[in-house]
Amino acid sequence: PEPSLAGYSGGMPTLPRADVSVLAAYASPRETRQMDHFTRMCLSSACAALEEAGISPGETENTGPVLASGYGPAAPSFAFLDSILDYGFKMASPLSFSHSVQNIPIAGMALRLGIQGPRLTVCQFETSVAAALLSASVWLAEGRVSRVLFGAADELTPVLPDVAAKIVEAEGGSGQGRRRRYPLGEGAAFFVLGLE
Q: Mean per-residue pLDDT for 60-79?
């Protein structure tokens, strides 16, 4: 089950969780049963981007997926850390660990879409998109791939609103021209890049 945000707002307004029900048009429940919410957001957006570009999942040869994320799959990462706190290092959840690895969402997405080329996840907080776009452009310029399935995604976890509220407080509040109390949300956006 997905974590609830009830009681974790930290004084920050939050938007509803991203709707991943569109994924049913692209993958069966059996194929996505063990995917976490972050990976489902990525896969549904990537499938929609390929469809809009007129590329079927079987035509993904010489395609390199690149994902930019400020925090990566945060919910599985926190679940893994919680399992360490609850049960100790020797009994920590191996499933949570496997889903907490930053490159797992893009690997699962590539596996589902039949993409066998290079894949990359960049997690550098607010510089993630710029760094990932730079990598994507280098891949295209070098001829490493003929197109890049580029995406950016982040998820809202129970911890994020609390941390954001503390940052706003530490920076002097919202009325001082610094970070404002914008609603926190989540989502994924993908598109196809090429040199054509």
A: 87
> What pLDDT, on a 0 to 100 scale, did the predictor assign at position 6?
47
DSSP state of 4: P
How many whole angstroms separate alpha carbon 14 and alpha carbon 160?
10
The 10 Å Cβ neighbour count of residue 133 is: 17
The DSSP bridge partners found for residue 187 are 154
In a 10 Å sphere around its CB, with 0-12 CB exposed, 13-18 middle and 19+ buried, how is residue 187 labelled?
middle
Which residues on neighbouring strands pair with residue 149, listed in sequence order?
65, 192
Burial of 33 (0-12, 13-18, 19+ CB in 10 A): exposed
End-to-end CA distance of the chain: 43
Alpha-carbon distance values, 175 to 9, 178, 181 (Å): 19, 7, 9
174, pLDDT greater than 50: yes
**What is the tally of helices (H) and strands (E) in the chain?**
7, 4
User: What is the edge-to-edge ordering of all strands in the sheet holding 120-122?
Assistant: 120-122, 63-68, 147-154, 187-194
Q: Tokens for 183? A: 């609603």
List, in sequence order, every residue forming a beta bridge with 121; answer none if it has no partner: 67
Contacts of 52 (CB under 8 A, 6+ apart): none
